[in-house]
Hints:
The longest helix has 22 residues, at 89-110. Strands 1-2-3 form a 3-stranded mixed beta sheet. It starts with a strand and ends in a 16-residue tail after the last helix. The protein has helices at 19-29, 65-68, 73-76, 89-110; strands spanning 3-7, 32-36, 79-80. The protein has a domain at 33-116. The protein is α+β, with helices and mostly antiparallel strands.
Amino acid sequence: MATFLAFGMDRYQAGFNKADQLRKAATAAGGFVISAHPFRGVLSGGHRSRALIYQQIDDPLPEAPQDALGHPVFKLADAIEVANGGTVDKENDFAMAVAGLLKHARHRRERRSFYPRPWQVPHQVR
């Protein structure tokens, strides 16, 4: 479904290869999960293979940030990566726009920020 970065667990557990199990383990450990480069391949114009988060669902690729908001991956992630050197600028910009929309939606619903703040990230992973 996607590539995730998970923080806060102290050991591997069976099932981490399944996004929902990884999410449950991170929650139980007080950790968090980030969706890594979620839009890599979405706007590249065929220069890459189809975006990983859209390979197993029949939805068309999003053309605007609002089109991406309902993707199931964003229900599992605490944050999304918005800048990656291996992702083209327009896809990083797209991720930033989606993150902004998700932050607004989640903040209204749950009264918490969508972005982990740098001072909340354990020192060893900075």
